Amino acid sequence: MSAAAPTIPNSLLLNRHKPTRLLSPRPFAVRCTAATQTAAATPPTASSTRLFNFAAGPATLPEPVLLKAQSELYDYQGSGMSVMEMSHRGKHFLSIIQKAESDLRNLLNIPDSYSVLFLQGGATSQFSSIPLNLCRSSEDSADYIVTGSWSDKSFKEAQRYCSPKVIWSGKADKYVKIPDFDNLEQNPDATYLHICANETIHGVEFKDYPVPKNKGGILVADMSSNFCSKPVDVSKFGIIYAGAQKNVGPSGVTMVIIRKDLIGNAQGITPIMLDYKIHDENKSLYNTPPCYGIYMCGLVFEHLLELGGLAGVEKMNKKKADLLYQAIDESKGFYRCPVEQSVRSLMNVPFTLEKSELEGDFIKEAEKEGMVQLKGHRSVGGMRASIYNAMPYAGVEKLVGFMKDFQARHG
Ligand SMILES: Cc1ncc(COP(=O)(O)O)c(C=O)c1O
C-alpha cells in the first residue's frame, strides 16, 4: 500500500470509476464544494437524445424539472448531500415536503378543511384504505361507478372491507362511456360514491362529477391519471387520491387529499400504514416517506405554478388532445378511437387501426422515429398515446405527422 492510501476515505477507494477530481485525496476539512459549484455554474442542458415517451406511467416528466433535479442531485442546495441521503426529519427535507404541500394547495386551491397526505403503496393501496377508513364495518354499503379497468379493480378490492355495489358499469359497451348522472340510482344509505376520474387504459374521462346523494355527501375519486392536468373544485370531493407517476412525479408517491372530518374512523382491522389518522397526525412522516419522490413532485408542482397554474396547463392539454383526436377522426376510418366524443380523455388516447395487422408495424416504425411506448394496454390491444402535462406539443405534432405519413403509405 502506498503511504498516501490511508488518507483516502474508503468510500472513494471503492469508487475507482468516478471522475478523478472526486478521487483525489484531500483533507477532510475541504469538502467537494469545487465540484458542486462547477455543476451549479453550468447547469445541464436538454439533450437531443431524449425520446418522445408516450407511456401511461411511469411517464415523461418536464425537462426543466429533470434538469433541476440533476443539478441538485449531488449536493442539494449546499446541504452537502443528496436529497436521497438526508434524514426525513432534518430541516432540509422538512422544508421540501412543506413546500410541496403548500405548492399543491396553491395549484388546486385546496381548502384548509382538507388534509394533504404524501403516502406510499400506489393508488392500489387506496382501493383498500378507502373502505377501511370510511366504512365502520363490512356491512356498510358504498356505491361504485365502473367506467373501466381501474374502477373495476377498486370495486373488487372494496368487496373485502365493505358491501359495495356497482350502480353503473360501462363493461357491456367495452368501457367507452360515462353515465348520465341524472339516471344514476345512488343508494342514500351508502357511505360514499366512488369514481375513477380518468380511466388510463380505456381513455374515458369525467368532464363533470356526479353529486353524491349518500348520507355524508361523500364523493371519492381516483385521479391518478389526470391529477393536476386541469383545475378541480376540491370541495366537491370527500377524498381525491392519485399515484404520482403520470403527471406529477416518479412512482412511489401517492397523494391523498381528504376532508378532515373523514379522518379518524378507521375499522379496527386497518393496518397502521393504511390509517389516514396516523399519517395526518404525523404530517406524512409516521415512517420513512419516499423522500426523493416527494422532492420530485415538489419540483413538478413548482414548475406547474411557474407555468401559470392549472388553467393554462388544461388549455395546453386540450390543444394537444384536439390535434390528436382530429387526426384520428379525419383519417376516414384508417384510425379509430372507440370512446364517445364528449368523454374522451385529455390524457390517454387509445386508438386502433382499421387494418389491425399493421399495428405492430405502426409501433415499430414510430419507435424508430423516436416515439416510444405507443402500444395499447395488454388487456385492450391497439395503440395508446398518453399525452400528460409533460408531453410537449411538438411530441403530439410529430406523432400526428407520422400517423399521416403511415396512412399515406398503407391507406
Ligand atoms: C387510474 C389508475 N388508478 C390506479 C392505478 C394503480 O396505481 P399504482 O400502480 O400506483 O398502484 C393506476 C395505474 O396505472 C391508474 O392509472
Describe the structure.
The chain is an alpha/beta fold and 411 residues long. It has two domains: 216 residues, Aspartate Aminotransferase, domain 2 (3-Layer(aba) Sandwich); 101 residues, Aspartate Aminotransferase, domain 1 (Alpha-Beta Complex), CATH 3.90.1150. It is built from twelve helices and 14 strands. A seven-stranded mixed beta sheet has the order 2-10-9-8-5-3-4. Helix 6 crosses helix 7. The protein is globular, with a radius of gyration of 24 Å. The N terminus is likely disordered.
* Count of folded domains: 2
CATH architecture of the largest domain: 3-Layer(aba) Sandwich
Give the beta-strand count.
14
Could you tell me which ligands this complex binds, including any ions or cofactors? pyridoxal-5'-phosphate
Biggest beta sheet summary:
7 strands, mixed
- How big is the Rg? 24 Å
Tally of DSSP helical segments: 12
Span of the ends, CA to CA = 72 Å
What kind of assembly state do the chains in view correspond to? Answer: single chain
User: Helix coverage percent of residues?
Assistant: 25-40%
Query: Can you give the mean pLDDT?
Result: 91
Short description:
The chain is of the alpha/beta class.
Topology:
Elements (H helix, E strand, L loop, with lengths): L9 H5 L5 H4 L9 H9 L10 E2 L9 H10 L18 H18 L5 E6 L2 H13 L6 E6 L2 H10 L4 E7 L23 E4 L1 E2 L4 E2 L13 E4 L16 E5 L10 E6 L16 H6 L9 H16 L3 H20 L5 E2 L11 E6 L5 H10 L2 E2 L10 E4 L6 H18 L1
Parallel strand pairs: 1-13, 3-4, 3-5, 5-8, 8-9
Antiparallel strand pairs: 2-10, 6-7, 9-10, 11-12, 12-14
Helix pairs in contact: 4-9, 5-9, 6-7, 10-12
Bound molecules: pyridoxal-5'-phosphate.
Pyridoxal-5'-phosphate (PLP) binds next to helix 6.
